[in-house]
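Handout for the seminar on molecular recognition.
Each group receives one record of this type.
Step one: identify the two inputs.
Step two: read the structure output and locate the region that could contact S-adenosylmethionine.
Step three: write two sentences on what you found, then compare them with the reference statements printed after the record.
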Amino acid sequence: MKITILTLFPEVFEGFFSTSIPLLAKEKGLLDVNIINFRDYTTDKHHKCDDEPYGGGAGMVLKPEPLFKALKSIDATSKRVIYPTPSGKLFNQSIAKELSNEKELVFIAGHYEGLDQRVIDSFVTDELSIGDYVLSSGETAILVMVDAIYRLIDGVISPESLVEESFNDSLLEYPQYTRPQEYEGMRVPEVLLSGNHKQINDWRYKKRLEKTIKNRIDLMSKNIN
Ligand code: SAM
């Protein structure tokens, strides 16, 4: 998959894409990342990317010209273009799964009061929100979405790890333990040391139910996939 990100702050993405699983995915040729600073597409002396909103009101709005030029340079009208915004549809695992099947995704990072609506009308295919709160910028929302999406691309992580995760069905994941068997007086549940797979599966299912009822009862009434 190719991921293109239009941002005024490319440095925000450097650490993420140069460490751990994203780096491995790039090295395996499963992920190609293109970061574009749309300030490079300004033509005025001050490289201005924002201006006051028509109609008045607080804050600044990202101007259309640099974004139009940057988006045209990558032929964005033929691509899936995502604008993270609090007023978008709520992003979730099922949307992440669907987007992981795309060959290319383009993300636009908003700032201040957001983008001039003409950018959205001309290029954006998906307006997505990562939750009911307001961030100061789109970069962090893009990192959240990209992280949820790229790991679902075939070959990035083992299929078994994905099957047993939260949100793969209507239950959350069971609790996990590793060595040592006892730490600060707390023992790993005996059943996990028993080697009895049936009992382990039953215990895990019970824990998934308990956790979902406690934290996310709403999931049990929806089919996540
Ligand atoms: N004025 C906008 C509103 O009230 O909807 C908020 C703009 S916010 C301060 C600046 C940028 O952060 C947005 O353009 C968007 O890209 C990003 N952003 C903020 N909250 C977000 C959320 N919950 N999900 C996705 N992106 C978000």
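Reference statements: The two ends are 22 Å apart (CA to CA). Residues 84-87, 109-111, 113-114, 129-131, 133-138, 141 surround S-adenosylmethionine (CB under 6 Å).
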